[in-house]
Amino acid sequence: MKLPSGYFQGTDVVLLARDLLGKVLVTCVDGHRTSGIITETEAYAGVTDRASHAYGGRRTPRTSTMYLPGGHSYVYLCYGIHSLFNVVTGPAHVPHAVLVRAIRPLEGTGVILHRRRASKLSPTLCNGPGKVCSALGIDYRRHDSLSLLGDEVWIEDGGYDVNRDTVTVGPRIGVDYAGDDALLPYRFVLDTIRG
DNA sequence: CATAGGATCGCCT
DNA sequence: GGCGATCCTATGT
């Protein structure tokens, strides 16, 4: 069921970001299995992308995770509050990553609601990268640089039929500092799900 | 060691 | 749509 290592080795991170729409992000944290259909992603295209943490080949203790081979998690703290979850893609030493920005809750919705301190499902429950991590129990201290073939965080193909016509493409959020690269069409939103 | 700022969120008006 | 929360990371002295 888990997407195999080979899936993450593709060299086109933009293509992979789009392909991850409709896949299912699963976690098993504190004995709770929770999951959601990936509905929004952004590609961060390594050393040539000014919006990427690895732009210009920058390598620090935090970003070293991005240089792992595809199929690892890159989870970091943003704004001092939120963990943000990325999928590392491509071969080792090529720091490409896909940020998961939104999911539609699937399994363990009771646990998800509790983690999000909400009482009922709503369209805004998991529509942001910080919310995704909160909902699935992903924490930058526990879940950074894990293999996505392990038993804590992984991705499955749920067999959801992604209608290409319902994918909205646009510029990435919150990367104004990236100059012209802020305009690249590297954000993908799944509007509807069939299956 | 000091400091500025961030791939966000939720609550306020 | 504006703003404060909150703390780690990166960079510079």
Description:
- The protein is of the alpha+beta class.
- It has helices at 13-19, 109-115, 129-136, 140-143, and strands at residues 24-29, 32-45, 73-78, 82-89, 96-105, 153-156, 167-170, 187-190.
- Strands 1, 2, 3, 4, 5, 6, 7 and 8 form an eight-stranded antiparallel beta sheet that branches.
- It starts with 12 loop residues before the first helix and ends in a 5-residue tail after the last strand.
- The chain binds a DNA duplex (13 and 13 nucleotides) through β3, β4 and α3.
E-strand count: 8
Mean pLDDT rating = 96
| Radius of gyration computed on alpha carbons | 15 Å
Percent strand equals: 25-35%
Counting helices, strands and paired strands, the structural category is alpha+beta
Instruction: Describe the global form.
Output: globular
H/E topology pattern: HEEEEEHHHEEE
Distance between the termini: 17 Å
How would you characterize the largest beta sheet?
A: 8 strands, antiparallel
Query: How many helices does DSSP assign?
Result: 4
Uncertain regions spanning at least 5 consecutive residues: none
The level of helicity is: 10-25%
